[in-house]
Amino acid sequence: MSPSGTILLNQLHEQNTVETIGRARSQFHGSNEAFAELAEQYTSLAPRLRGKFLRMYGLSSEDSYFSQGTDLSLAVSAGMGHFLRNLVLSHRPARILELGSSVGVSTLYFADALCKLGRGTVVATELDSAKCARLREHVRMAGVESYVDLREGDVFQTVAELDGFFDFVFIDVWADTYLRLFRQIERLLRPGSIVLADNMYTAEDAVGTYKDYIEKNPGFSSTTLDFESGVEFTVVVS
């Protein structure tokens, strides 16, 4: 990634951390010392236990569950971003579909990988006009505009207007819409396509119907990656 792109991503990750901590602190009814102790416990837990831990203390954010708007950037972590970039570099997809782009952090990782490969497009989707404006600016600052096709508007309407096949799909929208949205994009997938779905642990209840559908369908091979917020890694078999 270019030096300016790296600096930008570092700033966006720092901003997301501040937002996340601030949101959790506002929900926690206790002292700063108790909150610090809780944060330390959280980071020591295995990822698959973190969602239940948050819910136990009333810190689960509805941002991951329901289709209401939020000002939060809800960005992927740096570790997740590097994973996405490396996966693109190894799989070499011609077309990537990103469902829920927010301010473009994951978009930048996708676009940077495509830039290194010298080809490909990531179709980014986002409803919030303010976030779309920030995404466009971030893409411009990183110098990867030619690899990003931003579709602003309702994601279901956007998907309905798409055609052709996608080799890679990243789902990071509202957890209660995963199954409905996946059923709509199935026609855009082909054998060998990869689908990643975030928030399998942090929104475990809301994504249950999606996970059941994937696991019971012989046309897919899927496993949950035990890191970050839980990532369902699905390969289209037939």
CATH-wise, what's the superfamily?
Answer: Vaccinia Virus protein VP39
The biggest beta sheet reads: 7 strands, mixed
Backbone CA Rg: 17 Å
Helix content: 40-55%
Strand count: 7
Give the oligomeric state. Answer: single chain
**Beta-strand content estimate:** 15-25%
Word description of this protein:
The protein is an alpha/beta fold. The chain has one domain: Vaccinia Virus protein VP39 (Rossmann fold, 3-Layer(aba) Sandwich), CATH 3.40.50. The protein has nine helices and seven strands. Strand 6 and strand 7 (231-236) form a beta hairpin. Helix 5 (105-117) runs parallel beside helix 6 and helix 8 crosses helix 9 (208-216).
Would you spell out the secondary-structure blueprint of this structure?
Blueprint (H helix, E strand, L loop, with lengths): L2 H25 L4 H13 L2 H10 L21 H14 L3 E5 L5 H13 L3 E6 L2 H14 L5 E5 L2 H6 L7 E4 L6 H8 L8 E4 L10 H9 L3 E6 L5 E6 L2
Parallel strand pairs: 1-2, 1-4, 2-3, 4-5
Antiparallel strand pairs: 5-7, 6-7
Helix pairs in contact: 4-5, 5-6, 8-9
